[in-house]
């Protein structure tokens, strides 16, 4: 499935059309989310996460919403441990600044994650959040392609760049505070 999704995403990018896999893409997204659950082996979770990342090229807002709803519904230690593979999957999502919708979704996700980070007291989930943030921030500043460089440059001149840097600074400070708890 990963190979097929990868080819579909590549074709969508080349033809500059939106990736449409089924009527609402809920079936494939649901399949991926189901296989990220802790009951599956780590290799299955990773492959499902990679597939979810490919789907996020076209459906990032929906996927972020589903993952965030799972995160805020956590009520106990067991659910925190069970959510860790989903947070790991966030590192595969295609955040960015290439379009207004993508920019809005990226900033909204970072803002929402920042709001719930402080209440996460399990080390395993904190570690996954920090790792996914590291991957997100690296991807956002990726300058390996001309389109990435143009997207970043255009974004950095926009009014939303201030919001991004405020979020970045605030998240960085919170991660620093959280790291001191375990020293």
Report on this structure.
This protein is an all-alpha fold and 183 residues long. 76% of the residues lie in helices and 0% in strands. The protein contains 8 helices and no strands. It has helices at 2-15, 26-36, 42-72, 77-90, 100-117, 123-140, 146-156, 160-181. Helix 3 crosses helix 4 (77-90), helix 3 (42-72) packs across helix 5 (100-117) and helix 4 runs parallel beside helix 6. It is globular.
Along the chain, the helix and strand elements come as HHHHHHHH
Biggest beta-sheet profile? none
Classify the helix fraction into a percent range: over 70%
Backbone shape: globular
Unreliable parts: none
Radius of gyration, CA atoms, in whole angstroms: 17 Å
Count of individual beta strands: 0
Distance between the termini: 43 Å
Q: Structural class of the secondary structure composition?
A: mainly alpha
> What is the beta-strand fraction?
under 5%
Can I get a quick summary?
The protein is an all-alpha fold. The chain contains 8 helices and no strands.
Give short descriptive properties of this protein.
mainly alpha; single chain; 183 residues; 8 helices; globular
What's the topology here?
Blueprint: H1 2-15, H2 26-36, H3 42-72, H4 77-90, H5 100-117, H6 123-140, H7 146-156, H8 160-181
